Amino acid sequence: MLNPQLKVQALRPDREVLTRQLLPYFIGISGKTVGASGLSMHLVVIPPGARAEPHIHLGYETGIYVLEGTVLTRWGRNLENETVSQTGDFLFIPPGVPHEAINLSSVTPARAVVARNDPSEQDRVEPYSVKHTVGS
């Protein structure tokens, strides 16, 4: 028998929120909005020329689908690695990998759908400080 508490829910984000990464998010599916227990899904906008603050995701994977724009993702202990994602590309970020996203356009925003296997919106995002070592 179907649990009467379970239901299909549609929603449209009604406001922009500023994330810990200092980027505008439009909150979609999460534990708070629809009672999700293992998923969150949002729209992120990176303004022209803007970048996310370096950060890590504690204990969950992140999948990103770029709807519009070209984004440079720097990642690794010293953000020494680079990956460029364009409209139509998917990007996977494993748990605990330091990274930052940079919109490579100075005139158009980049937009992406962000999905996580965690129902929290921002609770387990932590700032990351790059620590340069001698010789790096």
Any chance you could write out the topology, listing elements then pairs?
Elements: E1 16-18, E2 24-29, H1 31-34, E3 40-46, E4 55-57, E5 62-68, E6 70-75, E7 81-86, E8 90-93, E9 99-103, E10 110-116, E11 125-127
Antiparallel strand pairs: 1-2, 2-3, 3-10, 4-11, 5-8, 5-10, 6-7, 6-9
What is the number of E strands?
11
What is the CATH topology classification name of the domain at 40-123?
A: Jelly Rolls
Summarize the amount of helix as a percent range: under 10%
CATH uppermost class of the domain at 40-123:
Mainly Beta
Strand order of the largest sheet: 1-2-3-10-5-8
- Derived from helix and strand composition plus strand pairing, the structural class reads mainly beta
Number of helices: 1
Assigned CATH architecture of the domain at 40-123: Sandwich
Distance between the termini: 60 Å
Indicate the proportion of strand residues. 35-45%
Unreliable runs = none
Rg computed from alpha carbons, rounded to a whole number of angstroms: 16 Å
The coarse silhouette is globular
Question: How would you sum up this structure, described in words?
Answer:
- With 136 residues, the protein is mostly beta strands.
- It has a domain at 40-123: Jelly Rolls (Sandwich).
- It is 3% helix and 42% strand.
- It is built from one helix and eleven strands; from the N terminus they run ββαβββββββββ.
- The protein has one helix spanning 31-34, and strands spanning 16-18, 24-29, 40-46, 55-57, 62-68, 70-75, 81-86, 90-93, 99-103, 110-116, 125-127.
- The strands form three sheets. The chain has a six-stranded antiparallel sheet with strand order 1-2-3-10-5-8.
- Strand 6 and strand 7 form a beta hairpin.
- The N and C termini lie far apart (60 Å).
- The model has no long low-confidence stretch (mean pLDDT 88).
